[in-house]
Amino acid sequence: MASAQRSRHALQGQGRPPSPHSQAAVPDHSTLSRRAETLEVPRPCSSSTGPVHLLVDSTGLRLCGPGEWLIEKHGTRRRRSWRKLHIGVDAETGQILASALTPHAIEDGTQVEPLLDQILIPLASFIGDGAYDQANVYDTVTERHPAAEVIVPPRSTAVLSDDAEITRTQRDRHLQNIAEHGRMGWQKRSGYTRRALVETAISRLKRVIGDALRSRTDGRRATEVAIAISALNRMLELGRPESVRVA
Question: How far apart are CA 82 and CA 61, in angstroms?
Fold first, then answer.
């Protein structure tokens, strides 16, 4: 785990052969950085046995650079830059199946289509927080996965659609369920409580890999994220605790 948070300079030194007479070539950090621009990382594959319950969310990742060095060495303050990482997590396995790295101002709902482009298996449900309560999100998920249920909490000011008396949409059904059972009751009945698992995945990413990106270009940062996700998914394949509720 410690290696995941080391810089390329440190890994270069770690990879050098112990003997000066060894013929083994170790790429320097500059070569590794350049290769990261075009490196193709295999796409994550789900190990679930059936349709996936996809949990989506986003988080911020800091950009490491001269600004971070000035703060650490001299206490100099400057505005920090960061990127937003959008992820889609398999609720059954905890694996990250899709990701997108964007500028921090990009809204979560705009990244649903890029995330779904990476999912090659059927969805049982699409679960996200209130940021995904948008008509285009419902339309995008339904178009690609007609059988999938979209489980997103409607806004507190939401109202039924104009055609709710004739044909109820998924969102209309959520609103009626909330009116009958309250929001907490709706969360339990709909399966929205699974969303906590995507927050667990984000926490795992930041604790094991770190909360910052070390690469200097967007192409290399995307590769950095893809490698981190591949490593985390591999860890989950090797072993994962099973939690059992006892009370």
Answer: 5
Shortest CA distance to 227 belongs to which of 55, 34, 36? 36
- Separation of alpha carbons 179 and 158, rounded Å: 11
Q: What is the DSSP letter of 103?
A: E
Beta partners for residue 96, in sequence order:
89
Asked if the structure places residue 62 within a domain, the reply is: yes
Q: What is the pLDDT of residues 112-153, one digit of tens each?
A: 999 999 998 999 999 999 999 999 999 999 999 999 999 999
Taken in order 212, 218, 220, 226, the sign of the CA dihedral is: positive
CA gap 1, 160 in Å, rounded: 49
Question: Is residue 95 one of the residues assigned to a domain?
Answer: yes
Tens digits of residue pLDDT in 204-213: 999 999 999 9
| Total domain count, the chain | 1
Strand ranges in 27-140 using DSSP code E only, listed in sequence order:
52-63, 82-90, 96-103, 123-127
Q: Are 101 and 126 in contact (CB under 8 A)?
A: no
Q: Is residue 19 in some structural domain?
A: no
What value does the mean pLDDT take over residues 73-86?
Answer: 74
Determine the structural domain holding residue 175 and report its residue range: 50-238
3: burial class by Cβ within 10 Å (0-12, 13-18, 19+)?
exposed
Q: Is residue 31 part of a domain?
A: no
Residue 98 sits in a domain whose CATH number is 3.30.420.10
